[in-house]
Amino acid sequence: MESKNQEELIYGWGTAQEVANEVFQRSAEVLLEGNLVFAYRAMTEKGPYEVVVSQRFDSQGHNVDSYAVYVVTPGWSGIISDVKKGYITETVLPDLKEWKVDKTIIKALENKLS
């Protein structure tokens, strides 16, 4: 179904609100398919900084070396549904350091991953 608003190019949904609702719901489902490992949020003058890391389960419900990562920054946001621990140690942790997150919070995530 094409959007009735000619300024919105929406296909497969009826409205922008339906798009937002479904995308949000799917993101939440991806994060909840595993075990929540880490969640951080801070509001700055530039905007929000948020990171949520969830360790995924295998088909028998056991933790595996696979994580879902949700990130929000003033410049972009997104969810990556399947990354290895290396992505967190090589990308997420350096980002937290760059954002000047309290060192005890960063250390807590490092300890949790080790």
What does this protein look like?
The protein is flat, with a radius of gyration of 17 Å. A four-stranded antiparallel sheet has the order 1-2-3-4, sandwiched between helices. The protein is α+β, with helices and mostly antiparallel strands and 114 residues long. The protein contains three helices and four strands, in the order αββββαα. It has one domain. The chain has helices at residues 16-32, 85-98, 103-113; strands at 34-43, 48-57, 63-72, 77-83.
Task: Tell me the layout of helices and strands.
Layout: H1 16-32, E1 34-43, E2 48-57, E3 63-72, E4 77-83, H2 85-98, H3 103-113
Antiparallel strand pairs: 1-2, 2-3, 3-4
Helix pairs in contact: 2-3
Key terms:
single chain; 114 residues; alpha+beta; 4-stranded antiparallel beta sheet; 3 helices
Number of strands: 4
The largest beta-sheet arranges its strands as 1-2-3-4
Which spans of ≥5 residues are poorly predicted at pLDDT below 50? none
Mean pLDDT: 88
